[in-house]
Amino acid sequence: MRHAAALLVASSFLLLTVCNGVSTSRIIHRMIGSANYLTTHELWFNQTLDHFSPYDHRQFEQRYYEFLDHFQPPNGPIFLKLCGESACSGIANDYIRILAKKFGAAVVSLEHRYYGKSSPFKSLTTENLKFLSSKQALSDLAAFRQYYQAKNDEVIKGSTGRGRAFMSMDSLNVKLNRSSVENSWFVFGVSYSGALSAWFRLKFPHLTCGSLASSAVVLAVYNFSQFDQQIGESAGPECKAVLQEVTKLVEQRLASDGKALKKLFGADELKIDGDFLYFLADAAAIAFQYGNPDRLCSPLTEAKKAGEDLLNAYAIYVKDYYVGSFGVSVQTYNQQHLKKTVLSGDTADRLWWFQVCTEVAYFQVAPRNDSIRSSKVDTRHYASLVCNRYHLDLCKNVFGEGIYPEVDATNLYYGGTKIAGSKIVFTNGSQDPWRHASKQTSSPDMPSYVITCHNCGHGTDLRGCPQAPLTPEGNAQSCSSPDAVHKVRQQIIEQMDLWLSQCQATGRSYM
User: What single Pfam family name could you report for this chain, choosing any that match (predicted)?
Assistant: First the structure.
């Protein structure tokens, strides 16, 4: 039952009841069928709107889920699985189920503020988005963790000790009719939520025994040219050369007959050429990011050998696979769509771009030499090449003046790849272009593993192969090297077992 009575409606914009380059979580979300969820039963928690104001005590409803089938009371651990930059429609049935069985764990998952049904406002104006940040999201997680673990008859005073008091009637201790048990917590996340997982352990080490940061993009990057370079490495020489040829043909045709070219790709609505070029670049990248490289490279290299029209071959791939199978909407790349502020089921695009434009950037640009993506989409001005400032122009056009990513501030706050945390496992897939924004070198108390195989991409350790569509329980049998996945998973289990046992030995929920 929702705690509607506890909501503070201090503004006519506050929401009482709502319905729900391309972000990782939203693609995965589109490709998970209802049968592949451990649970879709919605629960609700009253969350503080602004954790950093001593004066603003407004709250909003935040959606969460729990899965207790494998929980072994009273001392079983609690796995906090983080949702990222999309609507969170349940707890996906990936490898976390295997881990929950092994450790006798409860699994809970909190929807990220603003996404899905957890929006504080009816209108997503730039002004109303000022509470959308990773810092606020981390404090959300801390508040929820305390709420869910609350001891029987314990009163929680808001999210940070301020504001209206409420009874934690949905806490695990209350449900199990116990009064003083403090379980061991472990945090999980993939991609942006993987970064949140690492950052949560960094900022709230007293609330968790450790975290798994899968494909965790902990480094905010302004000019992310390594992304394109990894696509070239993952593609291999033959496929890379064909993709580069396709890009040249696209640029030529765009200059001579852009309208017909966009129609060929089913992207007539993308009036801004930069939006169209970004759409085509993402369509190629996604094959390597999610473990389906042959779906892209095989038809293109075959078309090249047969002397067929490469633009037509690529258009077939984009329409049949990227838009068709993945279900990516062309309007995701349309800046007119991104400017819409009305709350609806497709607002995640605008929300994620706001986070990109204010905190992390990850601006995917062409390297100076040997690029695959078009160099016409860039953040830089070269003396020998006039490049439009696509990303910054997008941020300004969609959100207004003064909106740009504070990359240095983000890395200063979290540490980037020099994160000074402990008991965090970092994992990455060898073919994943996002791994260059992750921590790929091991350090004391923070092991880092790269899973190497032909189709090991984003979140392989939890999702198996391919990474999309979801394979139940993260089955790794379709990975080109299942043993490589199993080896890293065993290393994860060993770290978890050590850190959880250390927590239990001290009688605390953290180490």
Answer: Peptidase_S28
